[in-house]
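Why Phosphoglucosamine mutase? Reviewers of the renewal asked for a concrete example.
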Amino acid sequence: MTRSYFGTDGIRGRANQKITPELAMKVGQAAGLIFNRDGERRHRVVIGKDTRLSGYMIEYALVAGFTSVGMDVLLLGPMPTPAVAMLTRSMRADLGVMISASHNLYEDNGIKLFGPDAYKLSDETELEIEKLIERDLTSRLAGPQELGRAKRIEDVRARYIEYAKRTLPRNMSFEGLRVVLDCANGAAYKVAPEALWELGAEVITIGDAPDGFNINRAVGSTAPQKLKEKVRELRADVGIALDGDADRVIMVDELGHVVDGDQLMAVVARSWRDEGWLAKPGVVATIMSNLGLERYLGSLGLTLERTAVGDRYVIERMRERGYNVGGEQSGHVILSDYSTTGDGLVTAMQALAAVKKLGRRVSEVCRVFEPLPQVLKNVRVSGRLALEQDAVVRAIEAGRQRLDGAGRLVIRPSGTEPVIRVMGEGENPDLVTSVVDDICDALTRAEAA
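Here is what the prediction returned.
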């Protein structure tokens, strides 16, 4: 069955156009019916959100959907995605929902669902929800006496902060570290500064004044320029940039250089190997991770297993084969000893712990390998058919032949945006750029035809 609603990271689209109140209510009803089957006890769902204006609309539409099929709703307010996942399990909920479009701007929004185990739902369950969304569910609604209730939970910030701090040794302190923290005007704008301050860091925040419209706008993990400037201006030890729902992170060293997800995975893997905490001698990452990461891990006696793009595929491989470190170059880092999804704050804390343990500068601890030149470009398309055009197929094959074992080429449709991503990697940056440009040109011509 073709998936009509769910992508690689839940349901996502333009607020009040694709993500409408009607759709949100139907998602609540459909998911509620699936996770409210036994009827012998009250079932509950937790709902969190980021700071987008449309979050109010979607939140209350979901409440209407869930309560109409007899589920109780616990409202968390603005909280990071990993906090929602953690609280789903901690509060013994049957389902967790995060309202967010992650790193997208405010015009978009999305609905992410977590099962009672705090993991994202399987493809099979998402397809089951999609089938119910398309049906008339009137006959399956709860009777007047069986309707659900909604309640706002007040102490969730403290719960998540305490959880995050407990991922570190009890004697770990960040005292002496000057940290610039970019909260992306998003879901972690309160919890992240508080957590780092409680651990002893001097915290200077930017992107901490959400107004419903400014989430991810020129701030956050996808726009680190302001963070780099502030780190250099204040002579800070480190900069940390989260995204809108705080499930990803990138860092900036004291020189203003970006430390991406590949470097962070390498730092954590090395630290955990030294401490004897790695469940298996390796890391799981996607096909987009830099070849430099693979070579560096090899020098440590560790392997790199690659998956399709999307943190859900990384998590599936980790669960299947028993790894406890994995992630994406974009900054989704999954540390499964602590979380069932990417957690930007916890990942940053693990990197800072390595810095404190080694007593060296962030640039020395967190930039552990030299990445191979990588070129990534996006071509906006109306669908995936452009990849099937003869001219595009020929351009891709010609590019692979030009690289001829001296690099990698990855072309894939985005799971979250109407674009095709073209990534080239190799020792010769001019050659890589030329190959990527030729493929992008072929895609552009195919789209215009």
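Residues 157 and 408 are 43 Å apart (CA to CA). This is the kind of structural detail the renewal will allow us to pursue systematically.
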